[in-house]
What we know:
The protein is α/β, with parallel strands linked by helices. It is built from 14 helices and ten strands.
Amino acid sequence: MWLRTLILLTLAISAFGQAMLNRNGERIVDTVREISQPIQDACSNSKADIVLIIDGSRSIHPSDFIEQIKFLKRFVDHFIIGNNGMRFGVVTFGDKVIMDNTFGLTQYTSNVELKDRLSSIDYRPRDGTSTQTGLAIKYARETLFTEARLDTKKIAFVITDGNSRNATETAEEAMKMRNEEIVILAIGVGKDVSEEELHTITGRNDYVFMIDEYSLLKELESKLSEISCKHKNEGCSEDVDINFVFDPSRMSYNETRTVTTFITESIADGKFSGKNVRIGTIPGKCQGLKGFYLDTYQSKYTARKHFNNLQRASIASLLEESLKEYFTCPYGGRKEARKVAVIFLKGKLIDQDRLKKNVQSLRKSGIEVFGIKMENLDSEMTLTRIFGRRNILDATKIKSMEEVRHELVNRICKW
Length: 415
């Protein structure tokens, strides 16, 4: 009896060993052990504080919400989680921040603990009557990122399948987050999400990812983990020549002061203060905008024409001059430096085709062109056609020029 039991046990162990082999003859035990460990591909020595801002609004189907959580669990396994490595926090939002499904950067210090906590995030359709993306970004910045380590890069991921309830608020909160040197990546899922809004959130075209459905999130894992590990706050470490272009004849005294203050504070900005950054200005020339005597004009019609120059923006001609002269050596330009033109736009643009042609000429010459919209009367579509979506900063939608200045510095320095 004892011998029979021993034989059966030996056969069982042998059979169990056979069962642990996959089709390639590899032991499944070893494979399972590998899967249970973090993937840690190129990220074994990486250090970052990352907040995942995930959409829990009722527009998401319950099965898609589960798919989203599965993706996050796979994603965090690309890293070593811990106080000396990567740390993760989560903000789940709908019409409010869903506190039970939100946690900070310091709470979970191992892959197992973090994935267990992610598994506990449940779908709350009753809290998802709207998509308050701006509120979630604000909460992440004001609450979770206050726990971030001083010597560590900060990254936020926004995952959503719809447009935010208040696009202006979302843009403002995203700008404030980026101004605190927090990098934002955005993932849009499905046809109802606005790619343009996601560009506004990230401030970078290459940090927006669009997919058709949640099941395709897995296709982004490697790319997103690579960015998380390798992204660096480069700042303006390279040589950059920047010319600010504006036309005082289009502005009031206070508006002109606003622009000149913007420029002087940009010069003083820490990211621009190095010797590698040179800043110049190209103001409009007001010659010829003189008064006239009582008997100069014989009719009110011809008298009114005297001031036509005041009603026409000279930006197009200024760009022609900047292309020909202001980035060349006699004006302090450097041959190998990046070249950037920043144009302040005020009033309705005249001769839009000419301006577009000049902007294109600047770009072909290797000059990057940014436009700052100051109570401009032209449509956003017109400005996008001329400058491109990423290169327009709308001061009419933002509370302060200081925030616009921070945004411009960050875009130029590619933060």
